[in-house]
Amino acid sequence: MKKQLLTGGILGAAALTVFGAARLVGKIKESANTVSMVAATSGDSGLNMEQTDSLAEVKAAMAKPASFSPACVESTKPSLYIDSTAIEVNGQTLANLSDYQSADTHSFDAGISYTDVDGIVTFRGNNFRDTASYGNTQIKEGKITDLWTASTGSITVGDATWSGSGWTGQPLMEKWSKEAKQSMNMYDWAKEKDDLVEVIYACMDGYVYFLDLETGEPTREALFLGYTFKGSGALDPRGYPILYVGAGYDSNEGTARVFVVNLLDCSVMYTFGNNDSFSLRGNLSYFDSSALVDANTDTLIYPGENGILYLIKLNTSYDPAAGTLSIAPDPVVKWHYYGTRTSVASYWLGMEDSAAIYDGYIFMSDNGGNLMCLDLNTLQLVWVQDILDDSNSSPVLSVEDGHLYLYISTSFRLGWRSNSTAEVPVWKIDAETGEIIWQKSYECSSEDGVSGGVQSTIAVGKEELSDYIYVTVARTGGQAEGVLACIDKNTGEAVWEHAAAYAWSSPVCVYNPDGSGKVLYCNSTGHIYLLDGKTGEVLDCHQISEGVIEASPAVYQSYMVVGTRDCKIWGMELQ
């Protein structure tokens, strides 16, 4: 394992970048959505708003690494794990991979700068996949209180019935501008409600639901698309009224695909991914991943379980005053790969989890035990790390001491590594080289069709929880058991563990204005736990279902929303 890099100096570098010659005496504290100045001026030193354009510059500087030049080392050479790759542009496969160069330069900033939208626009919030909460909570009593419920349904395809909200199943939330709302097919009262935050929830019954965050009242008619939606969908980070949502299973309507939906009138503007001849998995075309959009280049970035990464130039035209929206996708670029372990029986191709991106590099884990860093501008692999098994855990990026790291885990698919139990590591990885910094392993069991290990995405602590990560590990002591583990970022040692029924749902960290942090998670017996993030003390245990909660919650200020497999969407308040 590689020793952890301690480059330091990011505070000073950021201060110099943003403030020029000014001396920074106040402590800059980053939260999930804000940057605040704490304590501290003497004489003419400290934060001078005349010396910086905005606090947005401060938060962007503080949240990015001091430098980033990814390259493989001997143990992470792509050729060790990937046999071949190919590129297709507008239906034509390139004869030479080296001929490809993106017409636009893709370069993402830190996750905190992904969107200025009030809300949660993609799974785990942004391109770092590091938050499922927006704003601050006002938790005083440490209680979870029910506010409302909304009913969902089920859909049957062949012998399979899909009900309620599944994995990953995170709701989206957006506080639309008044101008945008006036052109939407919302009910009149919703258009007129100034502080309306709309919950947009694609569910497994084939519907997309639109609800008022405060009351659960429908804001418009539900949209029936006829396909099971297991994943979380995504909204456009520019505030454009566009929903990107992929089907997780075939339906009576046809094979699974991605829908690009105009949220002015809920019309489908574009679909892709179904029966793709470029796929190496035949007609399998499931899409559980939650998309990202490169706002600067107007490009949709969408990995699929068919083993294809899609880069689609949308050519979006949106006039909010006129209430018009259109796209004209071109070019459509596709990249696929074939792994050294890939077979029909195991180590399959394809990405079920959601990708993370920084600068011009995308980080993806797949069904075949590969964690890949790919250059988005050349579509050349930079490094690949072996993560042992079918991974459903989205990579999460974190800047620490000026360096970019990645947290991830994997599952245990029965029969691949063992027919009984197997080690499931939680890894901290150097995002520049793919080298393992540390790993913390758990012995997990599985049964056919229901995997143990980590099906969730790791929560990276901030504010007073900035030394920790949080991860739910399933089937650790038996088929029904699991833990929520708080792990030290620097050492990889468990600080505390909370044992209960197993969970596939991803934990969420929330913060009061003073920086104090809580962590909440949902489990397979319908319970939601609220815990003190530093000590692991259980503040509340709240049951909303007799069955499993596979979906992951999202939190807007003190409001929390999550769906259950027994056909309910729950709105709650953290008090």
From TrEMBL:
Domain of life of the source: Bacteria
Name of this chain's protein: PQQ-binding-like beta-propeller repeat protein
Family matches, as InterPro entries: PQQ_rpt_dom, Quino_amine_DH_bsu, Quinoprotein_ADH-like_sf, WD40/YVTN_repeat-like_dom_sf
PANTHER family recorded: CELL SURFACE PROTEIN, OUTER MEMBRANE PROTEIN ASSEMBLY FACTOR BAMB
Domain Pyrrolo-quinoline quinone repeat: 358-459, 481-573
